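Subject: mismatched residue count in predicted assembly?

I count 530 residues in my input, but I want to confirm that the predicted structure covers every chain. Input:
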Amino acid sequence: MPLYLRKALQDIAANRFLNAVTVMTIALAVVITGAFGLFFINAGDLLDSWRRGIRLMVYLESDLTEARRLEIKYRLEQMAEVGQTRFVGRAQAMARLRGQMGPQASLLDGLEENPLPDAFEVDLQPEAVDADRVAALAGQIADLAGVEEVSYGRQWLERFGGLLALVRLAVYGLGGLFFLAALFFVANTIRLILYNRQEELTIMRLVGASERFIRTPFYLEALIQGAAGGTAGLGILYGIYLAAQANLSASLVGFGFAWRFLPWYSGLAVVAASMFIGWLGCFVSLRQFIKTA
Amino acid sequence: MTTVAPRWPPDGQPATDKNAVIRIYGATRSYGAHKALDNVTLAIARNAFVFVTGPSGAGKTTLLKLIYLGVRASQGQVLVDGMNLARIGRRRIPLLRRKLGIVFQDYKLIPTRTVFENVALVLEAAGVPRRVLEQKVHRVLQTVNMAHRREALPPSLSGGEQQRVAVARAVVGDPLILLADEPTGSLDSESAAVVLELIRRFHQRGGTVVLATHDRQLIQSIPARVIRLVDGRSVEG
Ligand SMILES: Nc1ncnc2c1ncn2[C@@H]1O[C@H](COP(=O)(O)OP(=O)(O)OP(=O)(O)O)[C@@H](O)[C@H]1O
Ligand SMILES: [Mg+2]
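Triage response: the counts match. Full output below for your records.
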């Protein structure tokens, strides 16, 4: 084994507690930031799948002529954003409602006549689905003669989009914060180790050891800490992910939605960033230490 | 004290400009108002054996420190093997120290490293390959009768044992110059003889020895050149 690596490992063994604390700190930073990141990408996916499935319900005025209805259908299909349209007659709508209500459907038996209007169900082109364009389209459709009302999950869509933007901010903010916290811990661990070993370092210099000889094991140690912390953090995150997936999937069946973990390159980036934190922490404390020693 | 080999005892060969390996010109080292060394000028020839003596507080340790850059001279010049120490920056200090083997008055062994590791450190720092290193360390520990304690930590050793390890560490790298500060200070006469024998062999291999001591008996046992310090001033002879 190369000399420096052996020294670094010896050192980690000799300062087990401090090293463990540092590794856990880095792991914690990875877990917390990573959890938000995971939420972000999965919520984004979820939003996308909802958007893809979004439909406008175009409710028609009652007692429209067949010609009027066909004209509306024709106008709808002329619109660039519109995919398919389907006519849902009031009787069909009632049947659907009964189906959705299940056992409670008997409540509908008391109705003397069907209160539901005829409607067109309008699928959108996937690329057209963004909150602003959908709103504009809905306004346009509502202006057509014979259209009573247009409904879609508008507020819902906007709120969820806003929430995602917030989560994205949180990911960056927390990421930065935990990066600093981890850096602080690594720098302090190394500094503590340096102070513990001040006498040893002095003696090493007296017998002719170069700064490179003295410092390289510390850098290796910090890189190992970073790699270990990053990997451990990803492992814990994956555990949490599996647990969350098992608990939440049931409620999301039918959306054609698949959960996913961080992609492999993000995992690599996390480990690399953790190692960078280690390196930087070591750099900072060695600089300070050399100045004060 | 020990058996006397042909080139032993060394004569007090004078240093000339050509053969001097250590040259000190008007060196003064002050601590506040107090001058630990006061305008000392001397030259030590390559392969010389020199005693530095004088009462406690006379400046023996300070003189050695000037040579290994433990402290810098407040005034004057120190040259070691052609290097002007006033011009050596922090980064190049290791180059100077690898020419030197130092036995510190207080040993300066790393308390958390084994005897073996302490001695091996010098060779590791010089980039000596592992197998050669192990052989050399083992051999030198044998010569100071410490091979059986190679895995011991310094605090568990007696003062004399620590001193022998310190001497082993100082010579293991075959330095140009050995600076020994009271290397037999805590030793009984038997251990002192072992250590002296080691230093003698180092000198015979061509090394230069500067040995600080106030032990008259030790000085008298070897008719080498003696530099006497009194209150930081040098009084040769
Ligand atoms: N770091 C220091 N700060 C202040 N004074 C010092 C320092 N180092 C040495 N001195 C003073 O310089 C003088 C010479 O000290 P030095 O250690 O060289 O003496 P010495 O000849 O080695 O003595 P000993 O035989 O006791 O080892 C002493 O008066 C000492 O108090
Ligand atoms: Mg002294």
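Residues 3-49+158-292 of chain A form one domain. Marking this ticket as 'not a bug'.
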